[in-house]
Amino acid sequence: MKKLLTACVLLAAASGAQALPMHYFGEILGSGSYAGTVTSNDSWANPGFGLNQFGEQQLNLWGFDATAGQTLSVGVSSTDDFNGGFSLYYGEISNFDLLAGLFNNSGDIGAASYVAGTSIFGLDSLLSDISLQDAGFYTLIVGGKGPVGDAASYNYMMDVQMSSVPVASSLLLMSAGLLNVVVLRRRTRKQHEQRDHLLEA
After folding, report:
1. What does UniProt give as the signal peptide span (predicted)?
2. Closest CA to 75 of 38, 18, 31
3. What pTM, to 2 d.p., does this model score?
4. Residue 35: partners with Cβ closer than 8 Å, 6 or more residues away
5. DSSP label at 21?
6. Gyration radius of the chain's alpha carbons
């Protein structure tokens, strides 16, 4: 039993998946719909100091692991009077970055590199086919673009589409299968040639 437990721990450590930071709102586990709530309708467009402190959720931070070469499409919709904006970053964004007012909706935040985002102007709430160049942990930040509202919270739905990248073991298995087909065809061809040669003699 102890060996099994040790093997499970080693397997989990080797998988490379990053644990979701505690100050993140949720985790994106692939394509699907995700529900969120923010407590401000303009914090994404007009960030200030002390974001997401004392239980507030002016911005929602969503985390996910990705493989190099995947593509991501995200759309945000709401029945509340919420105009959502969002930014995608490669890396983790610390709680201190939000507290210190380092949030930037169109540039790097601390050690996290900016990848893409919606425009601060207009009503667009869609990112399409964003190429994820690097494997690792990504952060998607969702918040309001204004105008300032008087509601206590704003609910939204986020539709996420992530492409899948073939796993190396699947490619290896497919290659082995193709190689097997080639070998079998050659054997069959040789057997037919030998049979034809014997019939001629």
Report:
1. 1-19
2. 31
3. 0.73
4. 155, 156, 157, 158
5. P
6. 25
Q: How confident is the model at residue 136 (pLDDT cuts 50, 70, 90)?
A: very high
HSE (CB half, 13 Å, CA atoms) of 135? Answer: 8
- Could you tell me if 58 and 43 are in contact, meaning their C-beta atoms sit under 8 angstroms apart? yes
Q: Residue 9's pLDDT is what?
A: 40
Give the pLDDT confidence of 56-72 residue by residue, as tens digits.
899 999 999 999 999 99
Q: Output the six-digit token pair for 62.
A: 């969503």
Tokens read off for 13: 């450590």
Taking the CB of residue 136, how many other CB atoms lie within 10 A of it?
A: 14
Q: In what helix (H) or strand (E) does residue 143 lie, and over which residues does it extend?
A: strand 136-144
C-alpha 140/C-alpha 90 separation (Å) is 9
The least confident of 33-42, 57-66, 126-135, 179-188 is: 179-188
